[in-house]
Amino acid sequence: MNDLRRIFDEEIDLESTKWEHYFDIYDRHFRRFVGAQPRLLEIGVFAGGSLQMWQRYFGEGATIVGMDTNPYSANARDEGFEIFIGEQGNKDHLQQIIDRHGAFDIIIDDGSHSTDDLKASFEKLFPHMSEGGVYLVEDTHTNYWEHFGGGYKKPGTFTESMKHAIDQLNAFHSKDPDTFRPNYLTYAVNGLHFYDSVIVIEKGTRDQAPKEVRVNAPDRRRAR
Ligand SMILES: C[S@@+](CC[C@H](N)C(=O)[O-])C[C@H]1O[C@@H](n2cnc3c(N)ncnc32)[C@H](O)[C@@H]1O
Description:
- The chain is α/β, with parallel strands linked by helices.
- The protein has a single domain, classed as 3-Layer(aba) Sandwich (Rossmann fold), CATH 3.40.50.150.
- The protein contains 8 helices and 7 strands, in the order ααβαββαβαβααββα.
- The chain has helices at 3-10, 22-30, 49-58, 91-101, 115-125, 158-169, 184-188, 217-223; strands at residues 39-43, 63-68, 82-85, 106-109, 134-138, 189-195, 198-203.
- Strands 3-2-1-4-5-7-6 form a 7-stranded mixed beta sheet, with helices on both faces.
- The longest helix has 12 residues, at 158-169.
- It is globular, with a radius of gyration of 20 Å.
- S-adenosylmethionine binds at residues 16, 18, 42-46, 49-50, 67-70, 73, 87-89, 110-112, 117.
C-alpha cells in the first residue's frame, strides 16, 4: 500500500471519496515533491479530506490551497487551509488566487468536471505554474458524458484538446509548418500522461526540438 492510501485510510478525519487506482497515479507524479515544501492548489474541496491527505503526505512547509463554489468548504479553514470560495470557470476568481499565491507546483482539478470549466481553469492556471509543475485532472471519464458537456470524440472537450496536445508535444519535428507548427503547448509542456479517468500534464519550458546524442562506437572501439 502506498503512503497516500495509508494516510487516506488511517489518518484523515474529514470526508473524501477517491477512485482506488488514483493513489498510485498521485504517488508516481507527486512523490518528488514530498518534503520539498510544494505549493498545491486543489479545485474541488468538498469537506477537505483530500487537503488533509496532501498536507500529511507532503509534510511540513507545504502550502495547501483549496477552491470551491460551496461555502461549506470554507469549514476546512479550521484545519489551517486557505480556502477560496469561487468558480473555477471564472478567470477573475482564478486570477485572485494567482495574485495571492503565485506559482503552484501542483494543481489538481477535482471540481465541477464540466468540460468548459476544465478548459478554462487549465488555460488560466497552467501558464502560471512553476517550472517542473504537475497539473492533474481527475474524473475525465465525465468528458464522455453529455451531462458534463462531453461525448465520445466530441470536438472541444478537455480530453479531445489533450489528444491534440500529443501532436503539439511533437510539433518541433513537423515537416509541414503550414498545417502543423509549434504552439504554446509545444513550448510549455514536456510530458502528458493518460490514465483511466485521469490526465496529467507536466510543465517544462522547451524552445526547440531536443538534440540527438550519439556514441561514436567505432572510434571508441579502435582506441581500445
Ligand atoms: C468531488 S468533490 C471534491 C472532492 C475532493 N477533491 C476530495 O477528493 O475529497 C467536487 C467539489 O467541486 C465543487 N465544485 C463544483 N463546481 C465547481 C466550480 N465551478 N468551481 C469550483 N468548485 C466547484 C463542488 O462544490 C464539490 O465540493
